[in-house]
Write a structure and sequence with these properties.
Blueprint: E1 2-7, H1 14-24, H2 28-36, E2 43-52, E3 55-64, E4 72-73, H3 74-82, H4 88-109, E5 117-118, H5 124-140, E6 144-147, E7 150-151, E8 153-154, E9 156-159, E10 162-165, H6 169-174, E11 180-181, E12 187-188, H7 192-201, E13 202-205, E14 212-220, E15 231-238, E16 250-260, H8 265-277, E17 282-289, E18 295-303, H9 308-318, E19 325-332, E20 335-343, E21 346-355, E22 358-364, H10 366-376, H11 380-405
Parallel strand pairs: 1-6, 6-13, 7-11
Antiparallel strand pairs: 1-15, 2-3, 4-5, 8-12, 9-10, 14-15, 16-18, 16-19, 17-18, 20-21, 21-22
């Protein structure tokens, strides 16, 4: 499984994350191409090599024209992302980050997430930073995220809401439960965007986890204090630890379903995307013949028990249903891991299903293969075949090694 460790000795921000990703090998042109599907205008992205206390790092910049940026709500940003051609995992991660940020802003201002209007984080450069970071992690094939204690800084900062203490109130809300410290230099070292990204993605905050380091990238901050390198270090590595999704053989789930025969078909896609962004395990629709011979849909959501109320509320609010059915179910799942193989077209993640020591089946990640097919102008089937062959070679080599060891 491919993992990344945020080493935040000088804090974290959206542009520092993308800078470190570029330093790790993410292609700037591929990033530009995917970001263009957002339909945003009036910006240009650039990168350059810089020094931060004698450490070589990559500085990522979003240059925007002088037009005034409109304040955008979470719904506005979500619509922009859902209308894009980005992959499902990138859309899901991006929406989750902005949702986390909306919840934090709502707590600070005593309102609800749907009524929050972003100013700084709703501007084009902040949207590019956030979505660009999610694209970068997909290009790197990262499955799990870890983070160090965060240096947040101290002092005050001027914002659209006036003069605020550092860390900003939204940043404090986002980092509840995470280990933080101020450091000896005044200034903002963790931005709300950076805090939202690590708070959303990272499964653990603390010391460097056990991993085999594959590559290290440095993303530069704007300032260059001589007392410390103002950069974010991303450590990209591999671990044999399986993903926790589906690793238990037997587990509980909640099945939520409703029959609908009077809703605009466009809404179903929105509800599905929203459910996945909120943590649904699966969402599916089955054609149904309803009363009075009306064609309808049986909409079903599968989720963890702790997410059931959120999913029920989603269906009641976002669809035309008057009620839902829900019940607990047991499910048995195979052990599943995500591994990465290198092909002539680039790295591809492989979903592997096992029963103990036996590998039962594996499948290349569609989004990876589709992206590489477009980039290399190669038929999708050939990229998928190359990924399958690479993993079969790994399996064969592993079996031979085990026999020799025995």
């Amino acid at each position: 499984m491919r993992v990344v460790y945020f080493d935040c000795f000088a804090g974290v921000s959206g542009d520092m994350i993308i800078g470190a990703q570029l330093d790790l090998g993410v292609d700037l042109e591929s990033l530009k191409e995917q970001l263009s599907s957002l339909g945003l205008e009036g910006y240009e992205i650039k990168s350059r090599g810089v020094q931060r206390s004698e450490i070589s790092a990559t500085k990522f910049d979003v240059e925007i024209d002088q037009r005034e940026q409109p304040p955008r709500s979470f719904a506005d940003i979500r619509s922009i992302i859902l209308a894009s051609r980005l992959s499902e995992i990138t859309r899901r991660r991006s929406i989750a980050v902005f949702e986390r940020l909306a919840e934090a802003e709502a707590r600070v201002h005593g309102t609800t997430p749907d009524k929050v209007h972003f100013h700084e984080v709703g501007a084009v450069d902040s949207i590019i930073d956030t979505v660009g970071a999610m694209i970068g992690f997909e290009l790197l094939g990262v499955d799990r995220f870890y983070c160090s204690p965060l240096r947040v800084g101290s002092g005050f900062i001027e914002t659209e809401h006036g003069r605020l203490p550092i860390p900003a109130p939204a940043t404090v809300e986002l980092l509840r439960g995470a280990p933080v410290y101020s450091g000896e230099i005044e200034g903002e070292f963790v931005t709300p965007t950076g805090a939202a990204i690590v708070a959303t993605l990272c499964v653990e905050f603390g010391a460097l986890p056990q991993m085999s380091i594959v590559k290290v990238g440095y993303g530069a901050g704007s300032r260059d204090p001589k007392s410390c390198p103002n950069a974010l270090r991303l450590m990209l590595g591999e671990t044999a630890e399986p993903m926790d999704i589906g690793f238990k053989r037997d587990e509980s789930a909640v099945v939520i379903e409703t029959n609908i025969d009077d809703m605009n078909p466009q809404v179903y896609g929105f509800v599905m995307e929203r459910a996945f962004a909120l943590g649904a395990l699966d969402v599916f629709m089955i054609p149904a013949q309803m009363k009075k011979d009306r064609p309808g849909v049986l909409l079903t959501v599968l989720c963890k028990p702790e997410n059931a109320e959120t999913m029920i509320d989603l269906l009641l609010v976002e669809t035309t249903t008057l009620g839902v059915r829900y019940y607990h179910a047991n499910r048995r799942v195979l052990e599943r891991t995500i591994e990465t193989v290198d092909t002539e077209y680039g790295p591809v993640r492989i979903k592997v299903a096992r029963d103990g020591a036996r590998t039962l089946h594996f499948h290349p990640e569609y989004e990876d293969c589709a992206r590489l097919a477009v980039e290399s102008k190669t038929p999708l089937l050939e990229v998928q075949a190359a990924a399958n062959a690479a993993y079969r070679t790994r399996l064969t080599h592993g079996n031979k090694t085990s026999e020799q060891d025995g």
